[in-house]
Amino acid sequence: MPTPFESAQLNLTLFDLRREPVLRAARAWFLAEFNPETFEELVALAGGEHNASFRMVLGYWDMAASLVVDGAICAAAFLAAHGEIFAAFSKVHPFLAELRDATGEGEFCRHIEAVVLSAPDAEAILARRRAASLSAARARVTRSEP
Fold first, then answer.
1. Which InterPro entries does the annotation name (predicted)?
2. CA atoms of 138 and 140, how far apart (whole Å)
3. How deeply is 115 buried, as exposed, middle or buried, from its count of CB atoms within 10 A (0-12, 13-18, 19+)?
4. Which range marks the domain in which residue 78 is found?
5. What residues contact residue 86 under an 8 Å CB cut-off, 6+ apart?
6. pLDDT-derived band of residue 125, with 50, 70 and 90 as boundaries?
7. What is the pTM of this model?
8. Does 146 reside within a domain?
9. Considering its fold, how many domains does the chain have in total?
10. How big is the CA angle at 24 (ends 22 and 30), to the nearest 5 degrees?
């Protein structure tokens, strides 16, 4: 088990990694533009020109969550510092079983899933984050229409 200092250091390192320009751009797309409402939309969005961003964001969060699952980072400290993981996971959570079946990757996002769903009221948080993302996306479309 890590000391509180070691856990804090890893949390800070994860936060710093989020500033890397390519990951930052991928996260910006994922959080603002990736808003599938059906599995078919998810496949179209994730399989197109933004496939690398899709994989990068979920790969980053799954790697970060694996540090919690494996005991390298205190779960409470991680969740306090990285609330964005809920917003990211809320976008694939409704389609996770279909995605795993379609890709044959039964372990896809398993660390994210374990960490996020271990939080108190996880389902309610995911529902709020998903609704907020979809609402913001619809508002952006409405503002951009003539």
1. DUF4760
2. 5
3. buried
4. 4-141
5. 116, 119, 122, 125, 126, 129
6. very high
7. 0.92
8. no
9. 1
10. 105
